Amino acid sequence: xxxxxxxxxxxxxxxxxxxxxxxxxxxxxxxxxxxxxxxxxxxxxxxxxxxxxxxxxxxxxxxxxxxxxxxxxxxxxxxxxxxxxxxxxxxxxxxxxxxxxxxxxxxxxxxxxxxxxxxxxxxxxxxxxxxxxxxxxxxxxxxxxxxxxxxxxxxxxxxxxxxxxxxxxxxxxxxxxxxxxxxxxxxxxxxxxxxxxxxxxxxxxxxxxxxxxxxxxxxxxxxxxxxxxxxxxxxxxxxxxxxxxxxxxxxxxxxxxxxxxxxxxxxxxxxxxxxxxxxxxxxxxxxxxxxxxxxxxxxxxx
Length: 302
Known about the structure:
Layout lengths: L7 E5 L11 E6 L4 H13 L4 E4 L5 E3 L4 E7 L6 E7 L2 E7 L4 H10 L4 H5 L6 H6 L17 E8 L5 E5 L4 E3 L2 E3 L4 E11 L6 H15 L20 H7 L6 E2 L2 E3 L7 E3 L5 H19 L8 E3 L4
Parallel strand pairs: 2-5, 3-5, 4-16
Antiparallel strand pairs: 1-2, 6-7, 7-12, 8-9, 8-12, 10-11, 13-14, 14-15
């Protein structure tokens, strides 16, 4: 395991997730290459530990008790590997921990519409693939599956790197399947290389609108619940249930946007999860619709 990155113990994970909550990682590593990811999995297997992958922590709720075993952070697994114009397409190859905003800027430089799509999405590219991240606005593209050409995964069983093309994967609403178990380490993204001179202006306007409508001044996990359909807004259903401002401890349903649960300062993961459960219960009672969360819980035992 010559490529094993520095192994840390009892690392606080509050600064590794957007809600700024949660306990410590028992063991913690930050690989910088696919080869280091392989050695991390080898170490976990050799020492009898489960592993947990942690991206940039958006849409992620970490238990107050922390995460046992090995936590693999992909924050340093980032970088653009290649840009290319080929057969009428503009292609970008990057590591999975690359921030979506970094890729957005490359599409923006080319005045291509994925820039507008990516400007509304937090997190890393690997997480975008994992959950087929998307936006509600009716624009093209609006889901990650539309820009992914292929991606590479460190296979958990063989500890080798496998490549999956777009057609190998089952893409659905906020979910991908057909590639695990393993860790996404890199990908190739692309779009038709047809510049639209209006794209930079549209990105500026979209960012301005988002800042006016979302509580970006507080820590949050981003959108908490999936929209029940393309015609139904989770935020509107929560608002109609009279839940704006509802809070447990310092976790609160935002007054600005009901689909955001914010940390007013000292919230715990237990507070956040209590708010989520109450919101689900009340929306079901008032509308008959059972909301599904976008939140991925890590370190929880229930």
